[in-house]
Amino acid sequence: MDRMLRAARPGARSVDEITGSRRMRRMRKADWSRRLVQENRLSVDDLIWPIFIIDGENRREPIDAMPGVFRLTIDIAVEEVEKAARLGVPAIATFPNVDHSLRDQTGSEILNPDNLLNRASRAIKAAVPQIGIITDAALDPFTSHGHDGILRDGTIVNDETVRQIAEAAVLQAAAGADIIAPSDMMDGRIGAVRDALNEAGFGDVAIMSYATKFASAFYGPYREAIGTAGLLKGDKKTYYLDHANSEEAVREAEQDVDEGADMLMVKPGLPYLDIIRRLKDELGLPTFAYQVSGEYSMIKAAAAHGWIDGEKVMMETLLSFKRAGCDGILTYFAPEVAALLNKRG
User: Fold this and answer.
1) Does 252 count as an annotated binding residue?
2) Which value, to the nearest 10 degrees, does the dihedral of the CA atoms of residues 251, 257, 261, 264 take?
3) Of 29, 83, 125, 213, which is the active-site residue?
4) Which of 156, 216, 221, 327 could in theory staple to 293 by disulfide, Cβ–Cβ 3.0 to 4.6 A?
5) Is 182 a member of any domain?
6) Would the pLDDT of 212 be above 60?
7) Average pLDDT value over all residues in the chain
8) 101: nearest Cα among 55, 60, 64
9) Cβ-count burial 225-234 (b if 16+ within 10 Å, e if not)
10) Would 97 be classed as within a structural domain?
């Protein structure tokens, strides 16, 4: 055939001449060979499951903007976490939807040792001690204005917020949190939390820094889930990162490493794969992505309309985080993915 092609086009090179006999498709020809040379793999060990907690008993509230995700009372959350643990999911991240009567300008309810978040940690740790619990010390679920910090005269005040976050982190550790993950993006909060934990005898509690949390449009469904969507006035651009800035993102992460962060997180995930790669390559810490609510909801919505294969896109996007350098992923798909991976063996 090659001789015929050369005869038809004098001087034309054969494919082997063009490639130097390096045929890249050789190892793609069969399932076994593709598996043999696969560079990145997604496992159950990579999954962290974010869940939403509400007060009351025996209630499971659907979140309209996040099909398949629910707000759970603590008793139901314990049952669901037990199922996740049986699937092999190593950790959960808890987020409370606090009653609006308990929210105020300073988010003072976060300093209640018996608040919804801390009660959930105690119940889950007692029932499912083998699973890791990650809690967020940011104030937005507790404030009447939906911001992540204390609001005074139209400004989020940094230093007062940091002191409160550090105090809240100690209470969360005392309630059973294994990892504190402050998502507020206040300057100095990682160092302040580390100092507070150490001084309170919680030196073994780790810190997962939301090192690069961007002022993103992908958070909308999450704000519905925790009940802040109608509260937020203005935006969060004075403390979240500009999504145009990668150098600033690296500087933020470097600062958190210097202050004592044990792990770094990039949030959102898919639009910021370049940031994940840079942090992993340049800083070398365990690096995580949060596949946020908007990313989840887009996949669910497109799948519901039949525009995409939801399961395949779910797995492809999660694997993209691993390829970019992630050691793990916070994803609302965690139980579904864990069940699928376990089935595949």
Assistant:
1) yes
2) 50
3) 213
4) 221
5) yes
6) yes
7) 94
8) 55
9) bbbbeebeee
10) yes
Q: What is the CATH number of the domain that holds 216?
A: 3.20.20.70
3-class SS of residue 254:
helix
The active-site residue out of 125, 236, 237, 267 is 267
Q: Two tokens at 279?
A: 């942090």
Residue 4, domain member (yes or no): no
Tokens for 242, please give them.
């500009």
Mean of the pLDDT values across residues 136-160?
94
Using alpha carbons, select from 177, 174, 185, 176 the residue that is nearest to residue 139: 185
Give pLDDT, residue 26. Answer: 87
Question: Domain range holding 81?
Answer: 43-344
> How many CA atoms lie within 13 Å of 56's alpha carbon, on the beta-carbon side?
12
Predicted confidence (pLDDT) per residue in 225-279, tens digit? 888 877 887 889 999 999 999 999 999 999 999 999 999 999 999 999 999 999 9
Classify residue 14: in a domain, yes or no. no
- Write the DSSP symbol of residue 13: P
Query: For this structure, is 236 an active site residue?
Result: no
Per the structure block, which two tokens stand in for 159?
């230093």
213 is catalytic: yes
